[in-house]
């Protein structure tokens, strides 16, 4: 049980505590009758006694994806010299290739720039453990450049120790992990 808790803690720390700007990977679009993009890569675990997370970061893939592609690999001390498959090949979602598509199951955002023959894929983190992420079609209804970010009361009450280390608010223009553009959204009513 303890190793599982340590792994869960490390994953949470990676997702929330050490947040950095999202790294995107750009792929040329495949032909219309294909959804396959990217190519898997083989690599060897170096003899540096570093966790698997370092390899995942080097290739900009999620730790869980790397573990799924290499069952039985120890995430804390992978055996030096072990050959790993880095899962860089993926299927595009079976949706129109336009705008932004979020695939919750894969934890990926697909962006199809208008008039360009490419897709840009971003890793995403969503929601909160134990809380369902709503599934919906939305539109951006308002864009606010250089917003002031305010700490939510729910964050302060749910995680008082962490909240006490965070500023109550950040002025516009300050570099934050939340970005420099606030987008308000609204659900789009679907008609059948």
Condensed summary:
This protein is of the alpha+beta class.
Tell me about this structure.
The structure is a single chain. The protein is of the alpha+beta class and 192 residues long. The protein has 5 helices and 12 strands. The chain is flat and about 50 Å long.
Number of helices: 5
Query: Structural class, from helix and strand content?
Result: alpha+beta
Shape: flat
The counted number of beta strands is: 12
Biggest sheet features: 4 strands, antiparallel
Low-confidence stretches: 1-21
CA-CA gap between termini: 48 Å
Q: What fraction strand?
A: 25-35%
Keywords:
192 residues; alpha+beta; 4-stranded antiparallel sheet; two-stranded antiparallel ribbon; 22% helix; disordered N terminus
